[in-house]
User: Fold Group 4 capsule polysaccharide lipoprotein gfcB, YjbF from Palleronia salina.
Amino acid sequence: MNGIRISLACVALAGALALSGCMPTALSSNRTIQQRMETTQYRMVDTQRAWLHVPQGLLTLERDLQGVREQRIALPNDTSLSGDNFVLLRTRGGGALRGARFDLERFVELSGGAPYPFRSLSNRNMRTGSDALGAFFWTEQAMGPGVTCVAAVRSLDRSARPLPGRAAAVDVMMRNCVRGDARAALAPIRAETLSATPAAGAGATAAAPTLRNRSPFAAPTGG
Assistant:
C-alpha cells in the first residue's frame, strides 16, 4: 500500500513515553553526555513547541540532557523501507565545538550512528547546498525505482531563528526516504519549509528574515 504509514516503533515509543511521564529524568551533572543520552527518556510535547516549524511533522518528542536539549520530530514514511523518517534537533553552546568547527562525526555518533540505509556520515561524503537559512550538507542513496533516501545536516544560530534557552545553535539532522527524487526528500529541512508558519496557509511562507549565510561546520559568532 502506498498510503502514508507511521512506523510501529514511533507508536510504541509514544505509548511508552505517555506511561513514563512521571519518571525522574534529573541526572548527576558529572555524567557524560553519552550516559545522559542512554538513560534520559523523551517525552511528547505539543507540535507548536517544536523549535523548527516542520509542516510534515507527525509527532514531536523532547528531552533535557542537562545543558543540552533534544527534539525529535517524526516524519511520514510512504515507502516500504525499514526505519523512521525524522528530524533530530540538538542544542549546542559555544563550548560544544572542537577546533572551532562542528564535529559532524561526534554528532552522528551521539545520535546512534548513521541512520539506515547510510553506513556512515562524514565531512568527506556529504554534498553541499545552500538556501536562505545558510548552508546544509547532505548525501543521497537510491533505494529502488522512484525511491530516494537522504541524510542531511545543518546548523542554525540565533542570527537565523530564536533558539531554546541559552543555546548558541541548534544542530539538525534529518533522515528522509520518499517516493521521489533528492529534492523532494530534502524538502523538510529546506528554508522554504522551515521558514513557513502555520498561520501563513498551505504553501505560504513567512517574510524572509535577515539571515547570515552560515556553514554548519563553522563556529557560531556572537551578535
